[in-house]
Every structure is written in C-alpha cells, then in structure tokens.
Design goal:
This protein is mainly beta. 4% of the residues lie in helices and 39% in strands. It has one domain: Immunoglobulin-like (Sandwich). It is built from one helix and eight strands, in the order βαβββββββ. The longest helix is centred in the first third of the chain and has 5 residues. The relative contact order is 0.24.
Length: 132
C-alpha cells in the first residue's frame, strides 16, 4: 500500500524542498497525544508568511510547558505532577507527560509562544537573512 507523497509531513516545518527531504512521520510520537494543528498564516504588508503550531494542552499551566528551539528542531514538552490530595470518583483526564518534536528548516525560527484556553500556540517565522 502506498503512503503517498512525503511533501506534506507535519513534523517538518519550513520550505517545501526541505519538507520533501525527510520521510513522513519523522520524530513522530507513537500515540498521537496531544493533538495538534499546523497553520500557514499568510503574510501582509507588516511581514512574510509564517507558520503556527497549535497543540491542545488542556490541564497544563504555562510553567508545566516547555518550548525549545534546538539544533533545527522545535521541541515542545509538557510535564504535570500527580496531585495527591484529590480523591477521584471517576478519572477521565490523565496526568500525562508528552514531548512533540518538529524538524525546522534552516530558514525558520520560533518567534513566540502563548497559552490561551488550553491551546499552546507557537509562531514560527522566517529567519532574517544575514547581511554583511
């Protein structure tokens, strides 16, 4: 069974030539947690097009989330600690750690991250070209 084109791998963010150079599912988490979206945000007169990674992180606070750009990768980690003082009658929301890794093209950088209503939004922008 064919898996189709690799040109739209959600784990490689940047330019299409870079996206095509990696196999589909590079650095993929095996269980799909937490769910995420990747949006292309069109540029305007104020700046070029950019990318936005949005991850559903309900139950996490800002201090339990880590967003790091390292070695051309965007690494997003969530760490919660077990709350011992609660007695659950039903527990459907797990206290669960996660790590999501996305490969970034050389031309992309993390601009900023924000947490709003249980969604972590990470903005990626093109790097400024080096002028000597």
């Amino acid at each position: 069974m064919s898996r189709g084109s690799n040109s739209h791998s959600p784990f490689v963010l940047g330019f299409s030539a870079i996206e095509r150079s990696f196999p589909r599912g590079v650095k993929a988490s095996s269980d799909g947690y937490p769910p995420y979206n990747i949006e292309r945000v069109l540029g305007d007169s104020a700046g070029p097009a950019r990318l936005r990674v949005i991850i559903a992180v309900a139950g996490f606070t800002a201090d339990q989330l880590e967003v790091v750009e390292q070695q051309e990768q965007l690494v997003i980690r969530g760490r919660q600690t077990e709350e011992r003082e609660r007695s659950h009658l039903h527990r459907g929301i797990a206290t669960r750690q996660f790590q999501r890794v996305f490969l970034l093209g050389e031309a992309m950088q993390v601009a900023h991250a924000s947490l709003d209503r249980g969604l972590l939004s990470v903005e990626l922008t093109p790097r400024a070209s080096k002028q000597d």
